[in-house]
UniProtKB/TrEMBL annotation:
<dbReference type="Pfam" id="PF03841">
    <property type="entry name" value="SelA"/>
</dbReference>
<feature type="modified residue" description="N6-(pyridoxal phosphate)lysine">
    <location>
        <position position="295"/>
    </location>
</feature>
<keyword id="KW-0663">Pyridoxal phosphate</keyword>
<protein>
    <recommendedName>
        <fullName>L-seryl-tRNA(Sec) selenium transferase</fullName>
        <ecNumber>2.9.1.1</ecNumber>
    </recommendedName>
</protein>
<dbReference type="GO" id="GO:0001514">
    <property type="term" value="P:selenocysteine incorporation"/>
</dbReference>
<dbReference type="InterPro" id="IPR018319">
    <property type="entry name" value="SelA-like"/>
</dbReference>
<comment type="pathway">
    <text>Aminoacyl-tRNA biosynthesis; selenocysteinyl-tRNA(Sec) biosynthesis; selenocysteinyl-tRNA(Sec) from L-seryl-tRNA(Sec) (bacterial route): step 1/1.</text>
</comment>
<dbReference type="GO" id="GO:0004125">
    <property type="term" value="F:L-seryl-tRNA(Sec) selenium transferase activity"/>
</dbReference>
<feature type="domain" description="L-seryl-tRNA selenium transferase N-terminal">
    <location>
        <begin position="6"/>
        <end position="45"/>
    </location>
</feature>
<dbReference type="InterPro" id="IPR015424">
    <property type="entry name" value="PyrdxlP-dep_Trfase"/>
</dbReference>
<comment type="similarity">
    <text>Belongs to the SelA family.</text>
</comment>
<dbReference type="GO" id="GO:0005737">
    <property type="term" value="C:cytoplasm"/>
</dbReference>
<dbReference type="InterPro" id="IPR025862">
    <property type="entry name" value="SelA_trans_N_dom"/>
</dbReference>
<comment type="function">
    <text>Converts seryl-tRNA(Sec) to selenocysteinyl-tRNA(Sec) required for selenoprotein biosynthesis.</text>
</comment>
<dbReference type="InterPro" id="IPR004534">
    <property type="entry name" value="SelA_trans"/>
</dbReference>
<dbReference type="Pfam" id="PF12390">
    <property type="entry name" value="Se-cys_synth_N"/>
</dbReference>
<keyword id="KW-0711">Selenium</keyword>
Length: 467
């Protein structure tokens, strides 16, 4: 009986003659299409040996070209794609951290599609430095003597410690031996850079005397790490920058600070928690400060190092600096973002991360209402929707205790599997990432743009249909 149906399976050559398949090859790649044809035909052959349902096999053969098209398109589509962030976590590391504004990206586009003066001094006509485009701006905004930019803040910390403390001891508080995630831990980074960690004090309290007692002839630096991603609350004490800088001066030992998030404005003015700024550290006299470009600063992924020229000079010449160097896209996006900080008002209204964090609750609420109106019909599918008061998070390991009031759409259902719906939303052409909590889906409207409301309502309908 099997023989019959085997003969109905088309030959590869015949499949290649189908008009849709020819078009598919032009649109994608011959190799990809061949791979899909083989997979589909193998699949059919395998099911023949397992089933007796000839009708379904015939249907499958009839739909062969459609299956090949969708299989190939699935392979050909970009795997790295935009998503809708309805989680309310503004700096979501898994969803790409900070957004860059269109205005800044237009310039990146221009620089990427044209030749540029990346390392060319237009004045002298000779070789220039890729950092020169950024240094003046960073100095102007932070007040630091000099600056350097590398790929990310983790690289910045490695470079700073390698350049300043290799073979020497670095004193750090026990309460600040943080893990940043992705196995980046201060003690391990220290080891990588060839410095020896001398941890002092206790988890909850460290006094200046603890540092002072640990100073030896072999001390290379005093390190302060901003514990941006967690808080020890209760009976605590950590050193002020002034105390640690005074000790550094007294003992002629440089002070390094890993600030984590690069905050350049006073967030408490906008109803958020006060987060130490880069300017605070520069003003306090910290010798070298490192921070991220894509956390609270709101720029591209980068590690920014600012501080005294004598130290930055050493780092500029260090071989790791070459290994960690930034590309032209980063320089362009960072220059554009930093420039906005020349006016705080412009920074807050134009840098997406700052805009999202300082957004007016009324604005979020009207977006929630707009979406609510659009998804009204899903009641009929057994999904109950309501607007609820919720809290957004800053994310990116910044301000871990901050809960920013927001409005969210809460979806639940007695008849549908809400977990499956959450997954369905993630698997849309433009995935919608939501928060699943106690059998409800929460869509936080803080991190959603007005122009995404339509996309969400259509996506939601589609995901329900596909359940
Ligand atoms: C986030 C963070 C880092 C790592 O920064 P990346 O830019 O993600 O490499 C290092 N130190 C601290 C304190 C941080 O919060």
């Amino acid at each position: 009986m099997g023989e019959n149906i085997y003969s109905k399976i088309p030959k590869v050559d015949a499949v290649l003659e189908i008009e849709d398949i020819k078009k598919l090859i032009e649109k994608t790649s011959r190799n990809l299409v061949m791979e899909s044809i083989r997979e589909e035909l193998d699949g059919i052959r395998k099911s023949i040996s397992k089933t007796t349902d000839m009708e379904s096999l015939e249907r499958r053969i009839a739909a062969l070209s459609d299956s090949i098209v969708s299989r190939t398109e699935g392979k050909f589509e970009n795997k790295f794609k935009r998503t809708v962030n309805a989680t309310g976590v503004v700096i979501h590391t898994n969803l790409g951290r900070s957004l860059i504004s269109k205005e800044v990206m237009d310039n990146v586009y221009d620089l990427a599609t044209n030749y540029s003066n990346l390392e060319f001094d237009l004045e002298t006509g000779e070789r220039g430095s890729r950092y020169s485009h950024l240094v003046d701006m960073i100095k102007r905004i932070t007040g630091a003597e000099d600056a350097l930019v590398v790929n990310n803040n983790a690289a910045a910390v490695v470079l700073v410690l390698s350049a300043m403390a290799k073979g020497k001891e670095v004193i750090t508080s026990r309460g600040e031996l943080v893990e940043i995630g992705g196995s980046f831990r201060i003690p391990e980074v220290m080891e990588q850079s060839g410095a020896t960690l001398v941890d002092v004090g206790a988890t909850n309290k460290t006094h200046i005397e603890d540092y002072r007692r640990a100073v030896t002839e072999n001390t290379g630096a005093l390190l302060k790490v901003h514990t941006s991603n967690y808080r020890i609350v209760g009976f605590t004490e950590s050193l002020s920058l002034e105390e640690i800088v005074a000790l550094g001066n007294e003992a002629s030992i440089p002070v390094i600070e890993d600030l984590g998030s690069g905050v350049l404005i006073d967030f408490s003015k906008y109803g958020l928690e006060y987060e130490p700024t880069v300017q605070d550290s520069v003003d306090a006299g910290v010798d070298v400060i490192t921070f991220s470009g894509d956390k609270l600063l709101g720029g591209p992924q980068a590690g920014i190092i600012v501080g005294k020229s004598e130290y930055i000079k050493i780092m500029k010449k260090h071989p790791l600096n070459r290994a960690f160097r930034i590309d032209k896209f980063t320089i362009a996006a960072l220059e554009g973002t930093m420039k906005m900080y020349l006016s705080e008002e412009r920074a807050v209204s134009n840098i997406p991360t700052l805009k999202l964090l300082t957004q007016d609750i009324g604005e979020i609420e009207s977006r929630a209402k707009a979406l609510m109106e659009k998804v009204d019909g899903i009641d009929a599918h057994g999904v109950k929707v309501e607007i609820v008061d919720e809290y957004s998070q800053v994310g990116g390991g910044s301000m871990p205790l901050e809960r920013i009031p927001t409005k969210a759409l809460k979806l639940n259902s007695e008849s549908l599997n809400i977990g499956k719906l959450e997954k369905g939303l993630r698997q849309l052409e433009t995935p919608i990432i939501t928060r699943l909590y106690k059998d409800s889906i929460y869509m936080d409207m803080r991190t959603v743009r007005d122009d995404e409301v339509d996309l969400i309502s259509r996506g939601l309908e589609k995901a329900i249909e596909r359940l």
